[in-house]
Amino acid sequence: MTPISWQDARAAVHAAGAKVAAGRPSVAVPLAEADGLTLAGPLVARTPLPAFPTSSIDGYAVRGAGPWKVTGRILAGRPAAPLTDDGTCVEIATGAMVPEGTTTILRVEDATVSALVEGTPRAPREWRDVGEECAAGEELLPAGTTVTPGVLGLAASCGYDELAVVPAPRVATIVFGDELLTAGDPGDGRVRDALGPQVPGWLRRLGAVPAPPVGPVPDTLEAHVDALRSAVETGADVICTTGGTMRGPVDHLHPALAALDAEYVVNQVAVRPGFPMLVAALPDGRFVAGLPGNPQSAIVALVSLVVPLLAGLTGRPLPVLSPVTLGAGVPGRGDYTHLALVAQDPAGTYSPLPHAGSSMLRGLSRAAGFAVIPPRSEGTSGATAALVPLP
User: Does this entry carry the keyword Magnesium (predicted)?
Assistant: First the structure.
């Protein structure tokens, strides 16, 4: 089997997720519950912003030439009666509605107040006009935008109480392997499960709703099929499995997928480490993401396939990778893309880390992400490389 290129694999799983997402209904959630989700449709201004002329300073809203007689006070949050006569003014607070008939606003620090108000305004006006930020019906943000605190503030300013969003994907994690321990020290041929404790945390940072990990699942075909079926019954949109992605004597993931009538979206990727990664689609539109059993290889698979899959499932674009400058050389991996663990150094460049073997986690615990070294090339100090960030 010829592995698919790393770039094509990312695009393929994103497209598969996006196709499923297109057929799923959005949900309306209160603003307080929308942070981190994705806009299902464009955010459209319900009113102009500002909806009324708003003072940008504390001072006096005046009409005509001075001096001016004070006829009242306007505070934020209250309606403003018109100024009808020249030579009159009202005291006005920042954020208050500017009265109809106002010529300009005199800053409080520029005003001399006795029986009348006197002073020289600094500008023709010092208020925000209706619609200065946006007009009613104007699209402010497109569908697919990640809801951040800033988005929530903008939506609230427009009068929204809730937002139509794409539901967060629910993700199950299944850990395969008779050799794994879930407590105590490794020894006597057995190792600690290092993926069950960390994969849900990465998924949560990606905006998914992870279930507690299941396993270790015994190395039998029956146990693998049962674990996958149980995950489907929980309603998981994506099932992340760890281990069993090769075709060794105790690797049962591929036969288990066949038993569930799954179809591969991606099966093996030309990337090191972690090439025996996969994503398969189940008949009901759910996905299985097979992560290799070696811990760092599993995280390479997660950022390579699960990240774009979740982006597609939530209506977001394929993540764009940012360029960084390498602070040291990074070797290539022949015909394979090399995802090299890197950390940012004090100079702002990104350098490879030690302890970066596929079975190691020491380097990963310090990393900012992976530098992408394309096939048949190498990274040189001072060169530019794309960075796949850790969530």
Answer: yes
Surface-to-core class of residue 212, CB atoms within 10 Å of its CB (0-12 exposed, 13-18 middle, 19+ buried): exposed
Tokens found for residue 7: 């770039």
Query: Under DSSP, is residue 154 helix (H, G, I), strand (E, B) or coil?
Result: helix
Record the pTM.
0.86
Query: What is the number of structural domains in the chain?
Result: 4
Cα 182 to Cα 178: distance, rounded to the nearest angstrom: 11
**Digit-coded pLDDT (tens) for 102-132:** 999 999 999 999 999 999 999 888 999 999 9
Domain of 307 in residue numbering reads as 4-24+167-313
Residue holding tokens 């001096």? 67
Secondary structure (3-state) at 143: coil
Instruction: State whether 144 and 259 are in the same domain.
Output: no
Grouping H, G, I as helix, E, B as strand and the rest as coil, residue 279 is strand
Domain CATH code at residue 17:
3.40.980.10
- How far is residue 359's CA from residue 128's CA, in Å, rounded to a whole number? 59
pLDDT level of residue 313 (50, 70, 90 thresholds): very high
